[in-house]
Amino acid sequence: MKKHLTLLCIFCLSALLSMAQEEQVKLPYSFRQKNISMVVNQVDMPQLDQSKLLKQDAEHSNKSDLFRAGIGFDVNANTTNSGRTDITPDGGKLWRNQFNSEGAYMMYLVFEDFNIPEEAELYIYSPDQDQVYGPYTNNDVQSVGRFETDNIIGDELVVEYYEPANAAFHGHFNIAAVMHIYKDFLNTRSEEKGPHGTADGNCHIDVVCPEAQPWHYPINSVVCISMTAEVPGEGWGMYLCSGAMVNNVRMDKTPYVLSADHCVAADDQTYKFYFNYQVSECGGSTGLSSRVANGGVIVARSNTSNTYAGSDFLLLRITGNLGIAYRDSIFFAGWDCSGAYNTGVCIHHPGGDWKKISFVNNVTAPTSGSYANRFYVVSWMTNPNKGVTEQGSSGSPLFNNSSLIIGTLTGGSSFCYSPSGTDIYGRVSYHWYNNGNSNNARKLQPWLDPDNTGTKILQGMTYGGQVITGVAEHTQNNTFTVAPNPTRDGMITIQGDFMNEDAVCNIYNVMGQLVMTKNVTIDASFNMNVSNLDNGIYFIELIGADRTYKSKLIISK
Predict the structure, then answer these.
(1) What's the CA gap between 316 and 257, in Å, rounded?
(2) Which of 134-138, 148-152, 180-184, 513-517 has the least mean pLDDT?
(3) What's the predicted TM-score (pTM) here?
(4) Where are the beta strands (DSSP E) in 403-497?
């Protein structure tokens, strides 16, 4: 299991301490041993012309263009052609190499042909040893052989590989690229980043502002996605998009992320997912940025070309660990693929900046022209301005007023300086079957409804399993237990911290439809008969005078 140690206060010391209490942090072999020289071979990357890079980015500033934040250098370094190798007292092998890239805000490494034995450990760290990531182990070996490390803040990093003498086999890997981040999207130098950070505009609304609070749960589903790719003719690049964790009908917490296909620069690109990347107070300039899941694979996708008559969606599955420090805050967003639509919000990371929310003025569904049937056209509230989208927002979810995803951002003409411009969202209803495509890799339905239940509307769910319907409920929801669950005869006992009061009991199916309602008196424990309901998953809602209680019920006769 990968572990992280950092002494930099900008990475939130309190979160680090809580992580350290739950899992022991292991240090690199060279830190643990005496009489080992810390002199390491150094490789300097070519100096970058940052003004030239920014000029190139300005020439590709359409919202449908990828937002680039870093570039990479081909190095093709491994344990046989670079670095320093020491034979350890136990007969093992210790290999180290340092890479420097002047002016980088952050650096990380991309490995190819990465395969190391269970006994081996790989780390990266800053030369002053204040930042340490690892150990990366055999658990981090990907089927594609490509692997990407975490970020080291600054323009120097050291990589260390230790393999004991009793290892099952000799590990091998090749460092394909050293990545240089030239846009400070993670606020590594807080004095340089104001409330709107790397976003172009200043009209964006922080998700911790009061007007965003009714959308608390959908906000917790949205992630910033970093993608590293080697693009033919262009070389290595690091790009940023937005996406959302999405629920599936099994509600089994499969870590699916819904985004946009145009975020794919190369089929074999690597991924990082940033959770809770938002400021700590409305209008603030500091917040969390270190909650990262490393690794993902493409599950399904559909571009906008005539080849697939697509709607520009991308479904990813996170392959890395979901960290203890943030896992319980994750929300798996619900969705509506029925084709119905109304106003709501978009939650996104413009320019790779802190998480923002934008409020929809109007949604239309063209039936003719280039956007017909596949896309929604969205306009934003402008009086006053309630946010728009920009580069880096690509792939972000469009939520309806029931907090269900109905679209994913493809592009558009809205900017803070042009808030009356409209944006284009691929329809989830079209993603679902992709015009009847028979290829499962071109549509959402086989993955989000794997048992082909016909579900068209699914509510969102917290990581702890609480199903959430609508918005503005997080301030009043309380849970209770149902037994037996599943029930086979429809006779259940409900127990909870109730107020001994009269209440209304509503039961909904997975499509959010009300299938049963009755008046009840809720005490510490009471019985109910739901035998008239068919087999399936249901959500029970108890509405008291001051509090609402919710839980899940499974009927399996």
Answers:
(1) 5
(2) 513-517
(3) 0.80
(4) 404-412, 423-427, 457-458, 460-462, 467-468, 477-479, 481-483, 491-495
Query: How far, in Å, CA of 536 to CA of 548, rounded?
Result: 23
Element (H, E) at 525: strand 525-529
CB-count burial class (<10 Å; 0-12, 13-18, 19+) for 284: middle
Q: How far apart are CA 77 and CA 73, in angstroms?
A: 11
Q: At residue 5, does pLDDT exceed 70? A: no
Residue 513 has pLDDT above 90, yes or no: no
Q: Output b/e per residue, 493-517; b: 16+ Cβ within 10 A.
A: ebebebeeeebebbbbbbebeebee
Cβ atoms of residues 93 and 120 within 8 Å: no
**Three state DSSP letters for 62-125:** CCCCCEEEEEEEEEEECCCCCCEEEECCCCCEEEEEEEECCCCCEEEEEEEEEECCCCCEEEEE
3-state secondary structure at position 55: helix
Query: Is the separation of the CB atoms in 254 and 317 below 8 Å?
Result: yes
Residues 202-233 have pLDDT tens digits of: 889 999 888 898 899 999 999 999 999 999 88
- Which positions are annotated as active-site residues? 262, 312, 394
* Tens of pLDDT, residues 66-108: 999 999 999 999 999 999 999 999 899 999 999 999 999 999 9
**Is residue 43 classed as helix, strand or coil in its secondary structure?**
strand
Number of other CB atoms surrounding residue 62 within 10 Å:
11
Q: What angle do CA 43, 44, 45 make, to 5 degrees?
A: 120
Pairing of strands 42-44, 93-100: parallel
Radius of gyration of the chain (CA): 25
Task: Count the neighbouring beta carbons within 10 Å of the beta carbon of residue 449.
Answer: 19
Rounded CA separation 402/255 (Å): 22
